Amino acid sequence: MSGASDNDDFDDENANPNTSHVSQPNASSTEIPVKKLAVPAEFFTCVGEVPGKNASLYRCLHPGCVPKKKRDGSEKPLVVYHSSRCNAKRHFLNHDPTKDLGHMKLWEDAVKHLDNSTSLNNTPISVNRRVIILQEDLDNWVLNFLIVDVLPIYTVEKPGFKQLVHTLVPNLVLHGRTFFTNKLETMYNERRLQLIDALRKSTDAATTIDAWTSRGKAYLGETIHWFDGESLKRRSACLGIRRIKERHTYDGLTTMIEDLHKEYEVVDKLRGATTDNGSNFFKAFRESGDASDVPSYEDDDSEQSDEEDNMLYFEIGNILDARIRQEYVSNNVNPTLPMHRKCTCYLLSLIAKADISKIPDPIFQKLRNSTT
User: Fewer CB within 10 Å, N or C, the chain?
Assistant: First the structure.
């Protein structure tokens, strides 16, 4: 048996029997973990732990028990501290006010059985376990589940999911899709304002843009990259994903990209935008993009030694950056888009997968096949 008595009595049903009712402002708020006394499972079921406290939350299994309610309408669980069962005992005995039902004898027999069971008394407590106790915690975790797995919001109203949540946290309420739709919109607006505020502090940024089709629907996505002025670390964030409801024409893409830049107030901060080899992106930036500042090496008149006369040199910038070729150069006087860059990784991937197979040299092809 524990040194704490089951007969301790105090006013608050959920109060800690091991602490005084006198306020102690100088006392530390961190409690030292103690050995957990098991509570009879035939009378109570554990529904969670109290963060930062040596206590657990229980739900009474008595058929006639009417649980207390919180302000939001959810059930208020019973707090039982690990060092004493007195809260659970008093709650259980309240169901036998006249002592005619023999609840005292039932409690004593159940506790005696627990104390004689070494395996139950020595069950370790997981101090790192995260438990859903508050209604706000449940709402946040459900919304996180929907976002991470990209699930439709009506998932919260499916019978299987509702049964799962009710089994795990029977004392809390699972809201419907209207609630989570509003919560998602609120979270989106908060994050959008946070991103705008962070970008206001930056001076230079660049973006990566892509368009794709999924399940018969087309989308445009843009990610922005910048350096944090305080930590000097590179930051990245999604500016947005927009549905393309019309044809993938260059002017439609231009309008969508411009709207994103205006929404996040980064029009004057962007120094470049990287895309794949899509012709619609090429034309969009050729018509509305800023001119490239990549130097052209074609007019380089630097002296070369005699040993180099018979050698051909190709600048990697000339190969990978098609903007220095005349047909891709932008001469817009008032550009609305930043300077365009083609994705180097995408180009190298195309070369490795497609163009390299077109080299007719048999020795090269033999060498290539021997390394694949």
Answer: C
